Amino acid sequence: MRAIRRFLGLTCAVLLAQVFLTWGLGLASASASTMQCSSSPIPSGYVVTGISTTISCGTAPNNTYYLSPAASGVAMCSAATPVPSGYVAKGVVNTTGCGPSYGNGNTYYLTVPQNGTAMCSVASPVPSGYVATGITNTTGCGPSVSPGNTYIIRQPVSGTAMCNQASSPPPGWVITGSANTTGCGPSASGGNTSWIKP
User: Fold this and answer.
1) CB-based burial label for 169 (10 Å; 0-12, 13-18, 19+)
2) Are 194 and 159 a contacting pair, CB within 8 Å?
3) How far apart are the first and last CA of the chain?
4) For 106-116, what is each residue's pLDDT tens digit?
5) Band of residue 15 on the pLDDT scale cut at 50, 70, 90
6) Which residues have a Cβ under 8 Å from the Cβ of 95 and sit 6 or more positions away?
């Protein structure tokens, strides 16, 4: 009888340990996504990925932000935070989780730029160290605009053909020629394309 009681006691102890361990892991998992009132400053390295209205943050609509670390593939709410340094938007849409809809989309999908990236021009300028080598309109970057809602970007090398309606030569680089080309959007006075070199 004593052995049975000891067995039952050990079993209960193991089950309780598992419950507390699961509870603790659940708390750790939940803390990976942060909620705060919209009046609070957003920590560096984070973007807003959800907007809602909660009583704990007052009576104003859309008073609560849900934050996640900025990373490639993250869908960030465009009304709450700008595209962080080191990223561009590869898609622009309206989603229910980011509050009211906007003409240029309330949600941006982030990506780390690299040669050949197609970035949405309405979301952020061409990042430092890159130039636009193509301009077009795509459905993934929202409504069509002039000269285009999508820029194809790359790090320049000597002889790169740069779309000068979207980019300027990097510091220390010079223009060696200009013309109008089909890949850089509408024609412009003086040419929509410039060839550059360091």
Assistant:
1) middle
2) no
3) 89
4) 999 999 999 99
5) very low
6) 75, 106, 107
Domain boundary among 82, 112, 142: 112
162 and 180 within one domain:
yes
Token reading at 8: 């039952």
Amino acid letter, 137 = N
Q: Where does the chain have alpha helices with state H?
A: 2-30
Residue that has been written with the tokens 């996504």 in this structure: 33
Sheet hosting strand 117-120, strand order edge to edge: 117-120, 150-154, 131-136
* Domain termination site, one of 55, 86, 112: 112
Instruction: Provide the token pair at 68.
Output: 């996640």
Which residue range is the domain that position 56 belongs to?
33-112
pLDDT reported for residue 103: 86
